[in-house]
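Lecture 7 notes: from sequence to structure.
We start with the chain below.
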Amino acid sequence: MPATLGSISHSPGDKRWSKDGALRAAAAARSAGVASRAALASARPQTGGASGWRYSTQLNEQLTSAQCALDYVEDMLSQLQGFKDSLSQQLTQRRLDTDGLNAQRDALGQAWQRRRDDSAGSLDSQLRLSLGAPARQSFVARGLDLDSLTSGAPETLVFSVGGAAPAAVRVGEGVRRDEALRGLNQALGPAGVRCELDDYGRLGFSCSERDWDKLQGALTVRGGGVRFPGGVPQPLALEAEAAAIDVSRWRANDHAQVRLALQDVLRAIARLQQTHSAIDGAIAEARQSISQLSRTDEQSWASGFVSDFNARLNQTADFNHLQQLVPALLGISRYRVLALLSLR
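Predicted C-alpha cells for the same chain:
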C-alpha cells in the first residue's frame, strides 16, 4: 500500500535513534533547480483524476525535499573529493600549501553550515534523511537514563521549559521502563521534545534543530534530593549528538595533521555516499507511490490505509509501536477530523 514516507536512516548500521518513525507534517522546500523540476514533472500523475493527485501532493513535497537533499549531498561530495585530492597531493610534497588547504577547508565548513537550508531541512547533523518535517537534533540529558529512573528510591521530578507550566514525572523503584518513557514524553512533549530508545534500549532525546539553541538552559528539573536537588529548579545539562562532519578538526600545519585530516575526509565521503544511496531509494519509493496513487481510486486507497494501519498497530503488544504512533496523533482532535471529512 502506498504510504507517506517517514524518516529514513542513512545507513542500516547506524542504529542510534532509529526508533523515531513517527509521521510528520510537510516541510517547506527550496527550489532544487532544473533537476528537481524535471523529477517532479516525471512524477506528476497524468491520469487517475483528482483523488489520486490529492493524496500524492504530500509525496510530491517529500520528493522535492529529497531532491534538495540529493543536490546538497552531491555538492558536498564534489568539494570533499577535491579536498581529498589536495590533501593527498600535499603529502607527497616537502613544503605544504597551508593557505590553500585552509581555504578549501573553510569553504567546506561554510557549505556544512548551510546544510539545513540547502537540504530543505531534510538532512540532520548525522546526515540522516527525514522527509516531511524539519530535521531533529538528538541529544542526551545528564542524569536521565532508564536504569536510574526505574531503580533506587522513589522521587518526583518536575520539568519545565521556559515559561511553560511544570510537569511532574514519578520515577524510582517500581516504575517500569515503558512508564518512565511515557511519563517523560508527556512532560516534555508540549515543548517539542521527544524521548526515544535506540536499538540497545538506551534513552535519548530529540527536538527540532531550530529549537535546539533556545532549549539549552531553558529545560530545567527539580527533584527531591535523590537524583536531582530540590528547591530551585536546575538547568539540565544537555549534550548534542556529535555531527557527522566536523570541519574544525581538520588542520594542515604539518604532514601529520594533513594525514589525520585525510582520514577524516575519507570517512566523511563514505558517510555521504551512504546518504546518497538512502536518498536515491527514497526518491524511487516516492515515485513508485505516486504512480500507484495515480491508478488507485480514493475509496480503495482509504480502505488499504486503514487495513495497513490496524495491522501495524496490532502487530505486537510492544510499547515501541505505540511510541511511534502516538506523536503522529498529537493535536488531531475529533473536530479536525470532521473538518477534513467535510471537504469531500
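Points to note: Residues 186 and 256 are 50 Å apart (CA to CA). Residues 7-132+247-341 form one domain.
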